[in-house]
């Protein structure tokens, strides 16, 4: 973090973006916070989705939270089978509610705009 303050260049963010996000939020380093969010958005996976959602919520990272909720919505069945999901259900019920709301919104938009069927000849 100190290197970033002096040089405005971030070290290898892929290995420490989650830790630096917390520090950037604590010390109001918005540029570093944005860089960490961007890196974490690119690294969302089934295994990291819940951890990333919790980070985004704790550090008020709106861009990251939106991206991870979209990811969870797209991969709901896989993410919900992870041990971190089960932990989130117990420890962060408000995040479970947000994930459910995101999933419900996506489902409703699919119902409102069904795919057009091709005419058969």
UniProtKB/TrEMBL annotation:
InterPro entries: BACK_BPM_SPOP, BTB/POZ_dom, SKP1/BTB/POZ_sf. Residues 1-42 form the BTB domain. Residues 48-99 form the BPM/SPOP BACK domain. Gene3D superfamilies: 6.10.250.3030, 6.20.250.50, Potassium Channel Kv1.1, Chain A (3.30.710.10). It is found in: Nucleus. Pfam families: BACK_BPM_SPOP (PF24570), BTB (PF00651). The keyword Nucleus applies. Its main location: nucleus. Keywords: Nucleus, Ubl conjugation pathway. The keyword Iron does not apply. Belongs to the Tdpoz family. This is Speckle-type POZ protein-like.
